[in-house]
Amino acid sequence: MDKIKLQVHEWKNSSIQVFWGEIAPCDHLVQFYDNDKVFLDTLEGFAGCGFLSGDSVIVIATRDHLVNLNERLKAQAFDIDALIESDRYFPLDASEALSKFMVNNWPDATLFDKYISQLITRATKDNRKVRAFGEMVAVLWQQGHGGATVRLEHLWCRLHDQKQFSLYCAYPKNGFTQSAIDSIDTICKSHSKIIDGQNRPSTEIYYRSTT
Fold first, then answer.
1. What is the domain partition of the chain in residue ranges?
2. pLDDT digits (tens, 9 = 90+) for 39-62
3. CATH 3.40.190.10 given to domain 27-173+186-204
């Protein structure tokens, strides 16, 4: 993981509200995080600032992460049920989502496009902007499906270019070994920004562009 442990002076820094409030539809972000608290702090900012900006938010995450995220959002006084009912919030289990388009442990492009496009169509109702988080790639990686992970990243990138929505994904650092550096490089190159995953003040975001 040495290649993604950059020096502090190489990172730009912003408040969570400003960073997530100004996220653009062309942004495709990735985070390699140290622990769940760091990740959930980031995901909470991503989703919460999306609601405050009037965006629709799609979160495809593990069951535990969804439970923790919803508890955090409720603590911030967001009405989760109302957001879901109005198609402003789509909390989806990553394993169940994968079952919609995985064929023989490989992402089927047609099924993936159909599944995610239907979500995007619902989310863009009333001309709302959409931001999506996907943890399916991390689930595949932890299951040892390296090739399928890179393929799914490619499918996300292609659909992101077509549909123009903000996209964020994240991987736990403990899922990588030194031998996985080439895969990390490939993943990073398919994103516009990398979010630092080290322990930082929860009110701040450290990030860098990949170009």
1. 27-173+186-204
2. 999 999 999 999 999 999 999 999
3. no
